[in-house]
Every structure is written in C-alpha cells, then in structure tokens.
Amino acid sequence: MVDEEPIENNMDEGADDYRRLNRKCMLSMYINYAAVYAILLVSYFVVIKLSKEHLGPDYDMVRYIAIAALAIVLTYMIAAPPVYYARYKYMITKDKIDVRYGILIIRHIMVPIERVHQVEVSRGPINNLLGLGHVNITTAGGTATISYLELEEAEKVADRLNDMIGVMLRDRE
After folding, report:
1. Are residues 115 and 140 in the same domain?
2. DSSP 76-133
3. I want to staple 90 with a disulfide (CB 3.0 to 4.6 A). Which of 17, 76, 81, 99 is the partner?
4. What pLDDT does 16 receive?
5. Which of the listed residues 37, 55, 82 is the one where a domain comes to its end?
6. Whether 41 and 78 share a structural domain
7. Are residues 115 and 59 in the same domain?
8. Order of strands, edge to edge, in the sheet holding 89-92?
9. What is d(CA 128, CA 143) in angstroms, rounded to the nearest whole number?
10. Would 4 be classed as within a structural domain?
11. Least confident interval from 67-71, 81-85, 111-115
12. Residue 95 and residue 168 in one domain
C-alpha cells in the first residue's frame, strides 16, 4: 500500500495532501529500463559488427561515440527512478485530479472531474507481476494517468472517480 491514508480521506473538500507512490514503482522502472538497455546493447553490437568493414578509419570514433552515448543512457536509467519516485505525487479532490511528476521536465496536470469521460485501470506484464497498475483518465482533450499504484489502490481510485462522475451527472439532471 501507499504510505498515506486511504483514498477516501484524501477526497474531502479542501484536502491539500498529495499522495505518494509505492516504492515498488522504482523496481518496475528499473526492470523496464533494463529491458530497453538490453535491446540497445544488442543493437550496438549488431551495428558495430556489421559496420566495421564499411566505416574504415572512422570505425573507432563511431564506436567511442556510441559507447559514450550508452554510458549516458545507463546513467540516466540508474538515476531516473529515484528522482521520479521523489517527485511524483497526486491528489484527487471533489472537483479535480492533480498529478505532478517528472525527471528532467516537471509536469503538472490538473483535470477537472466534470471533464472526465472514462476511467480505466491498466497494467503491463512487469507491473502485473509487481501488483501495480495505472489509472488512465480520459477527457475530450486527452488522457491523464496516475501511474504505479498498487492494484487494489488503482481499483479504489477508478471506482471512486466513476462514483464522483455519476453523482455529478445525476446532479445535472
């Protein structure tokens, strides 16, 4: 579970407590990054092997540039999950969904509840193994996501948002 109170307590009028993610989100990010990095390494070795005879004297320079790029990507992939975890926070009130996250670029997304069209819970294979899911909130203008929630928490958030939308629609009638 996340480190704070249940989601119902966070949806009170005037609540200003942002919720944080479960630490398992970092493990999920590391596993995803490891898979991507493995693909990059295989691509590097294939390209270097195939281009050795075609590049001639430029071969060493291209190889060093590629190794430097791989080192920079690896550094980012190691440093990014803790930064993302530290910066990610979300809040759901009776009138809006507020999500703040980012690594190099900080994003702040606010979605008015009255603009929400659809709420769904999704999870990929790695998140499924770790018991994590994403709540995707669709509006006419796009999609906002509350990421890396434990499945039980994600289902609670989705159910609560659907209930809030239902109440809002009934009040309009």
Report:
1. yes
2. HHHHHHHHHHHH-EEEE-SSEEEEEEESSSEEEEEEEGGGEEEEEEE--HHHHHHTEE
3. 99
4. 56
5. 82
6. yes
7. no
8. 89-92, 96-102, 106-112
9. 21
10. no
11. 111-115
12. yes
Mean pLDDT within 70-83: 96
Could you tell me if residue 3 is inside a domain?
Answer: no
Question: Residue 120 and residue 141: Cα distance in Å, rounded?
Answer: 16
The residue count of the chain comes to: 173
- 31 has pLDDT over 70: yes
The CATH code of the domain that includes 144 is 2.30.29.30
Alpha-carbon gap, residue 99 to 20, rounded angstroms: 10
> Which pTM does this prediction carry?
0.79
Q: Which amino acid is at 90?
A: Y
Residues 98 and 16 in one domain: yes
Q: How far is CA 45 from CA 37, 41, 67, 116, 130, in A?
A: 12, 6, 11, 46, 31
By residue range, what is the domain housing residue 100?
9-21+90-172
Q: In sequence order, what are the beta bridge partners of 112?
A: 96
Domain count of the chain? 2
Q: Do residues 4 and 17 touch, judged by C-beta distance below 8 A?
A: yes
Residue 116's Cβ-count burial label (10 Å; 0-12, 13-18, 19+) is buried
C-beta of residue 26 within 8 angstroms of C-beta of residue 81: yes
The predicted structure's pLDDT at residue 161: 93
| Alpha carbon separation from 18 to 15, 51, 62 (Å, rounded) | 9, 51, 47
Q: How far apart are CA 107 and CA 74, in angstroms?
A: 23
